[in-house]
Write a structure and sequence with these properties.
Helix content: 55-70%
Order of helices and strands: HHHHHHHHH
Low-confidence stretches: 1-5
Number of strands: 0
Distance between the termini: 89 Å
CATH architecture of the largest domain: Orthogonal Bundle
Mean pLDDT: 88
Number of helices: 9
CATH topology of the largest domain: Tetracycline Repressor, domain 2
Structural class: mainly alpha
CATH superfamily of the largest domain: Tetracycline Repressor, domain 2
Radius of gyration: 22 Å
């Protein structure tokens, strides 16, 4: 029997297969052999597209960010669009809780320069605070996603049950919290943005000549 004229796999199929392996087996169960078995090919076939396991894992990290559904830029105000993008990014990562930790090892920031360009273009603040906003939103979003992903991967709750006798103040704070998981994240982003607005307003006031 001759060799097939068309490749049985592609780079994209291999990335998707790798993500499915991680979804079901976890990172500890990931291997090129497992990906090859899912694709029904031999492991050496993957080396045509990837130099090693690390390159494939880096592409999986990249794919999770590429899968983010960006909000319509024409809908809502600036703050609501920013929040929608943060939520969409967090949701994309939480779709694959076992794979989310790959962002710590293979964060593809160089692939996000276009997204950063679009973001800062719409910031209603002076240029000197743009990177602070990017940094804060990025770390809030990815940090929140990674903590939640870790809990989900181990079938744990985000906040463990707090013993009121041992931690009375924390127990009261947890009981008073009115927000569920995603809503709590959104409120944290809103507070961060409110802080930016307050701080920049104070800076403008100090910079303006006395009347």
């Amino acid at each position: 029997m001759g060799r097939p004229t068309k490749s049985l796999i592609s780079r994209d199929k291999a990335i998707r297969a790798a993500l499915k392996v991680i979804d079901t087996e976890g990172l500890d169960g990931f291997s090129l052999g497992a990906v090859a078995r899912r694709l029904k090919v031999k492991s050496p076939s993957l080396y045509y597209y990837f130099s090693d396991k690390a390159e494939l894992l880096a592409e999986v990290a990249r794919q999770m960010l590429l899968d983010v559904r960006y909000p319509d830029a024409s809908v809502g105000g600036w703050e609501e669009r920013v929040i929608a993008l943060c939520v969409a990014t967090r949701q994309s990562l939480l779709t694959h809780p076992n794979a989310a930790p790959l962002l710590l090892q293979f964060f593809p920031r160089h692939l996000l320069l276009g997204a950063y360009e679009n973001a800062v273009k719409g910031y209603p603040f002076t240029r000197d605070v743009h990177l602070t906003i990017l940094e804060g939103l990025e770390k809030l979003t990815i940090g929140s996603a990674l903590f939640e992903a870790s809990a989900r991967a181990r079938n744990l709750t985000s906040m463990p049950e707090v013993d009121a006798a041992s931690y009375p103040n924390l127990a009261k704070s947890v009981a008073a919290n009115p927000f569920a998981d995603e809503a709590l994240f959104v409120e944290a982003v809103r507070m961060f943005l409110a802080g930016i607005k307050t701080r920049t307003a104070r800076s403008r006031k100090k910079a303006s000549p006395a009347s």
